[in-house]
């Protein structure tokens, strides 16, 4: 595994292919309040790129171009949060997207456990270490443990997508899953606009 740390943006010539795994690290779990600190990316080749963003410096034109590229599918785990965070800080609506958490909830209805750690363990026999999850991602200098943790969150999403697609197709829910993926950017906009805790589809 190779992890490359970039400051402020990805290189203009970085080609991650037609499908890129993406994750974010923030100062908390409220996109409206908590700033974006890292954006991690992987082409599914075992390597990761980590973009470290400084408070107030969110230009990143190359990263924004990738996030909005209609020819590149962006893979997330719990895409709703990441899309809202990227919208709030980079002012770009990420699409098209695929969410492994949503795919798991639609296909693995025999369980209530859909975390990234659980999926990697049960579908890939990979044990993720989540000890760094609640560390200070806004620190100017990241520790080796933080960098390793951040990279791990994107290294396995392509393999998870393949496993979950098999299950979605087997259960006849791929079309429904795709419709949900297509709606995720709108769901994230609702979160960013203040409807995060309200089910507007309820009676």
Task: Describe the 3D structure.
With 203 residues, the protein is of the alpha/beta class. The chain has a single domain, classed as Nucleotidyltransferase, domain 5, CATH 3.30.420. Helices cover 42% and strands 16% of the residues. The chain contains seven helices and six strands, in the order E-E-E-E-H-E-H-E-H-H-H-H-H. The chain has helices at residues 61-68, 79-90, 100-107, 116-124, 144-155, 157-170, 174-195; strands at 3-7, 19-26, 36-42, 48-52, 73-76, 97-99. Strands 1-4-3-2-5-6 form a six-stranded mixed beta sheet, with helices on both faces. Strand 3 and strand 4 form a beta hairpin. The chain starts with a strand and ends in an 8-residue tail after the last helix.
Radius of gyration, rounded?
16 Å
What CATH first level would be assigned?
A: Alpha Beta
Count of DSSP-assigned helices: 7
Beginning-to-end CA distance, first to last residue: 49 Å
* Count of discrete domains: 1
Looking at CATH, the homologous superfamily is Ribonuclease H-like superfamily/Ribonuclease H
Q: Which strand order spans the largest sheet, edge to edge or round the barrel?
A: 1-4-3-2-5-6
Low-confidence stretches: none
């Amino acid at each position: 595994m190779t992890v490359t740390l970039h400051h402020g943006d990805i290189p203009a010539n970085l080609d991650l292919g037609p499908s890129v795994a993406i994750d974010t690290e923030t100062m908390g779990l409220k996109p409206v309040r908590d700033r974006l600190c890292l954006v991690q990316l992987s082409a599914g080749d075992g390597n990761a790129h980590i973009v470290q963003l400084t408070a107030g410096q969110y230009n990143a034109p190359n990263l924004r171009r990738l996030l909005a590229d209609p020819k590149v599918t962006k893979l997330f785990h719990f895409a709703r949060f990441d899309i809202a965070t990227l919208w709030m800080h980079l002012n770009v609506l990420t699409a098209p997207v695929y969410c492994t958490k949503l795919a798991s909830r639609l296909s693995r209805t025999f369980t209530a456990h859909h975390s990234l750690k659980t999926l990697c363990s049960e579908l890939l026999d990979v044990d993720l270490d989540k000890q760094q999850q609640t560390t200070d991602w806004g620190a100017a200098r990241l520790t080796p443990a933080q960098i390793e943790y951040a990279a791990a969150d994107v290294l396995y999403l392509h393999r998870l997508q393949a496993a979950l697609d098999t299950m979605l197709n087997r259960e006849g829910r791929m079309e429904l899953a795709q419709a949900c993926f297509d709606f995720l950017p709108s769901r994230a906009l609702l979160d960013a606009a203040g409807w995060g805790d309200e089910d507007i589809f309820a009676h």
